């Protein structure tokens, strides 16, 4: 890692994607951080393009490179918003060289998460399904709401995203479910209900339901509904710009400087734990 006056060298994986391009732009406005590398998959049509130009900015001299060059490239922190398989390969490469990671990728299964935990034994990693301050505040509010409302209120989680999103429910919705389940002393794996159709029977009282909407350019909406007899409480977050996620990821990258190995999330970064 660098000393206090040297800019932190940032690399971005998934640079040509929606989040990658937003991260390139966010990095350019952030003092103390310097984009030094940008990666795409080895067959990407974006290879060789200037990262600044790709993000709609003036050229910044960083050419998009194949991720097969990642292990041999100089940087301090890799910010990865790709897909589960790519993220795990990148985490392994960073762990081997002790370089820090910020991971925003969602859709990892339990085995893949265990692999990430193993990588975090060798290098510091912030892994969070949502990097926005607002959503992370909502996690804390949800734990309080669930504790106060208890088992008398039915919990339903509704999320909406753009038509290109490939995983469902969103990583954020799943984390919201985990937070509520933990506060209520339930195991989400036992009580989650993912969508309903046909003769479903009455709602089990301990169910935590998920509903997924996909369409257009919705950046990311999440509502947790606590429905009781005679009243309802809704905790809602709506993202209107990907910059909120990108700025959170860059904050996490700066926070990682000189941290010991371990698996962290945005609750750690924001001091909410
Ligand atoms: N944690 C958070 O705050 C947020 C998380 N996300 C998550 O980030 C991920 C990416 O989202 P988007 O940017 O919308 O998707 P996207 O599909 O626009 O971008 C992903 C990019 O990764 C690239 N890629 C695939 N394999 C690669 C490899 N081996 N090396 C380098 N690049 C590779 C793809 O070519 C693509 O350009 C998703 O899992 C999404 O759910 C998205 C927004 C916020
Ligand atoms: O794919 C997205 O776009 C988003 N994914 C994250 C998730 O799955 O929770 C976060 C955000 O809502 C945008």
Automatic annotation (TrEMBL):
PROSITE patterns: DAPB (PS01298). InterPro entries: DapB_C (IPR022663), DapB_N (IPR000846), DapB_N_CS (IPR022664), DHDPR_bac (IPR023940), NAD(P)-bd_dom_sf (IPR036291). Pfam families: DapB_C, DapB_N. NAD(+) binds at residues 14-19, 104-106, 128-131. GO terms for molecular function: 4-hydroxy-tetrahydrodipicolinate reductase; NAD binding; NADP binding; oxidoreductase activity, acting on CH or CH2 groups, NAD or NADP as acceptor. Pathway: Amino-acid biosynthesis; L-lysine biosynthesis via DAP pathway; (S)-tetrahydrodipicolinate from L-aspartate: step 4/4. (S)-2,3,4,5-tetrahydrodipicolinate binds at residues 162, 171-172. It is an enzyme of class 1 (oxidoreductase). Residues 9-131 form the Dihydrodipicolinate reductase N-terminal domain. The active site is at residues 161, 165. Keywords: Amino-acid biosynthesis, Cytoplasm, Diaminopimelate biosynthesis, Lysine biosynthesis, NAD, NADP, Oxidoreductase. GO terms for cellular component: cytosol. CDD domains: DHDPR_N (cd02274). Residues 134-270 form the Dihydrodipicolinate reductase C-terminal domain. It catalyses: (S)-2,3,4,5-tetrahydrodipicolinate + NAD(+) + H2O = (2S,4S)-4-hydroxy-2,3,4,5-tetrahydrodipicolinate + NADH + H(+); (S)-2,3,4,5-tetrahydrodipicolinate + NADP(+) + H2O = (2S,4S)-4-hydroxy-2,3,4,5-tetrahydrodipicolinate + NADPH + H(+). Its EC number is 1.17.1.8. GO terms for biological process: diaminopimelate biosynthetic process; lysine biosynthetic process via diaminopimelate. It is found in: Cytoplasm. Catalyzes the conversion of 4-hydroxy-tetrahydrodipicolinate (HTPA) to tetrahydrodipicolinate. NCBIfam families: dapB. Belongs to the DapB family. PANTHER family: 4-HYDROXY-TETRAHYDRODIPICOLINATE REDUCTASE 1, CHLOROPLASTIC-RELATED, DIHYDRODIPICOLINATE REDUCTASE. Homotetramer. This is 4-hydroxy-tetrahydrodipicolinate reductase. It comes from Immundisolibacter cernigliae.
